[in-house]
Design brief:
542 residues, Immunoglobulin-like, 2 domains, nine-stranded mixed β-sheet, eight-stranded parallel beta barrel, 11 helices, 27% helix, binds alpha-L-arabinofuranose
């Protein structure tokens, strides 16, 4: 029986079964197969991304040591506190497109002596009208020593993107040397000590360029493969396993763009198959777009469904690239690294200087839930994922302008989903009547419910997360645990009656989740999911 048929028949059975037991019909079904593990959910799937763009670094993260804004060594304290709460696993830096125009040396040495350079993003039309500032002219006050301080304060691992377009492999080797050479061993190790860190930083994740098909050099995949090999041959490793991440494709809403994946991997393999031993991951970027008028907070129900539909395309993109990778890398040594993902709206910016700084609403929260569930369901394929971007940008978790700061609905979804980290992803099948809608004159439909499940064997704990995209209807769902039985549980729900709800500086708590004990027991029970919601059930197993 095909998966869809299985779910449809389960839905029919669930509906009659539950009606007989409770007098209420189920309009949703979830089957969790405890004995069908998919793969471990690496904590790194909840990684973040920070670029020298708009208000991400300057003001978002870095406020300066002499600022009146509470800070720890110049880094915004409110952000550090929230990232500690999130136990953020890994942060990518310094770009993005910025990375391929960045000389890491500019961000070392005494801050007062660092050069000011034109920022990659200075060309962006949105910045033409705003006064000059760090968004246009990069002061380099925040460089490797400050980023490493940020990582130490938050507990995150660093993931650096090297400049392939405009620096040489020697410059890359020397950045690795500056970061990782043993204390006092070389001139660069001594420069690191003078910058505040005698001991090596131990940076293991290194991206070899960014979007090398575009802002990272306009390469063809075969040309990029040559650069990749040059950059990764004989890099000093100081006894550490360096994890190189190849610049991968940018997937569109209508096409996964596997041509880049194939072209690059074939060209690497043509030299030597064993090169896959050091290619830790292939990066993939997928931005799911925006609403009909580009607004993050003003949209119709049809816009809502369409953007969620587009977010769901991540699922087939992962499968398409994984299959293409397997044709060349037969043992699947190389994993996927989705190091940029999220919605990409076009207004309204929280500050004109802060490029792409749009307040996320409940719509973005559901995009986050759908995407993190997809990552869980593909856990065996993924080594790392990084949402774009951490603060004041695109699919952001935080907004900050000077002394004002708030978390966004996206933050709360990450906070809820951290319970999955380190767990074993399980086969999850869910369905509910699909939702027909019309978008820009064309009919379409979105599934009625989706989610993921993970088991934490030691604690005998099952974590189930579910998105109900229906803007007005709740879903009473029969949940069956095949191979386990529930004893007790807790539920966390992020739901608002207004689908446009969002947090701003005046209303930082407009959207926040609620928690309660959950009445769940046995291997089959009912649960009602609120309209337009993200729900987490944490279930203690018998
Ligand atoms: O996240 C913003 C930009 O989007 C990044 O710099 C680039 O890699 C992508 O195109």
């Amino acid at each position: 029986m095909k998966r869809r048929e299985f779910i449809a028949s389960s839905l029919a059975l669930a509906s009659t079964g539950m009606a007989a037991r409770t007098g209420r019909a189920a309009n949703g079904v979830i089957e969790i197969l405890i004995n069908e593990p998919v793969g471990r959910i690496a904590p790194e799937l909840h990684g973040q991304f920070t670029e020298h763009i708009g208000g991400v670094i300057y003001d978002g993260i870095w406020v300066g040591e002499n600022s009146k804004i509470p800070n720890q060594g110049g880094i915004r304290k409110a952000l550090v506190d929230r990232l500690r709460q999130l136990q953020v696993p890994v942060v990518r830096w310094p770009g993005g497109c910025f990375a391929d125009s960045y000389n890491w040396r500019d961000g070392t040495g005494p801050q007062a002596e660092r050069p000011v350079r034109t920022n990659f993003w200075a060309n962006d039309r949105a910045l033409w009208k705003v006064p000059d500032g760090p968004q246009k002219y990069e002061p380099n006050t925040f460089g490797t020593p400050e980023f490493m301080r940020f990582c130490r304060l938050t507990g995150a691992k660093p993931y650096f993107a090297a400049n392939v377009r405009s620096l040489s492999p020697l410059d890359f080797d020397q950045w690795v040397e500056y970061c990782n050479a043993p204390a006092e061993s070389t001139t660069l190790a001594r420069r690191r000590a003078a910058d505040g860190s005698r001991e090596p930083h131990g940076v293991t994740y290194w991206g070899i360029g960014n979007e090398s098909w575009g802002c990272g050099g306009n390469f063809l995949p075969q040309e990029y493969a040559t650069e990749y090999r040059r950059f990764t041959a004989w890099v000093p490793d100081y006894g550490m396993k360096l994890n190189f991440i190849g610049s991968g494709p940018g997937a569109g809403i209508d096409h996964p763009n596997v041509a880049w994946t194939r072209g690059f991997l074939e060209a690497v393999a043509a030299k030597r198959l064993s090169l896959f031993d050091q290619l830790y991951g292939l990066s993939l970027h997928y931005y799911c777009g925006t609403t009909g008028n580009g607004s993050s907070i003003n949209f119709s129900a049809a816009d809502w469904y369409q953007l969620l539909w587009q977010a769901n395309v991540m699922d087939s993109h992962l499968t398409a690239h994984w299959l293409a990778m397997g044709e060349i890398d037969r043992d699947h040594k190389v994993k996927l690294v989705v190091d940029e993902w999220g919605a990409w709206h076009s207004g309204p910016a929280i500050d004109p200087r802060y490029l792409f700084s749009y307040p996320p609403s409940m719509l973005d929260a559901l995009v986050t839930g759908i995407t993190l569930d997809i990552f869980n369901r593909h856990a065996e394929k993924l080594a790392m994922c990084n949402v774009a971007q951490l603060i004041n940008n695109l699919h952001t978790l935080f907004l900050a302008v000077e002394d004002r700061f708030t978390v966004t609905p996206n933050f709360w979804v990450f906070d809820m989903y951290k319970a999955h980290r380190g767990g074993q992803s399980l086969r999850f099948m869910g369905d509910a009547p699909s939702i027909p809608y019309s978008y820009q004159g064309k009919g379409n439909s979105l599934w009625g419910l989706a989610g993921s499940a993970s088991i934490h064997q030691k604690e005998k704990r099952l974590v189930v997360t579910v998105v109900n995209p229906n803007v007005s209807e709740e879903r009473t769902t029969e949940i069956t645990l095949h191979g386990a039985s529930a004893r007790s549980g807790r539920v966390t729900v992020l739901a608002e009656t207004d689908i446009h709800a969002h947090n701003d500086f005046e209303h930082p708590n407009a959207v926040r989740p609620s928690e309660a004990p959950a009445k769940v027991s046995g291997s089959r029970f009912a649960w009602t999911f609120k309209p337009a919601s993200v729900t987490k059930l944490e279930i203690d197993l018998a």
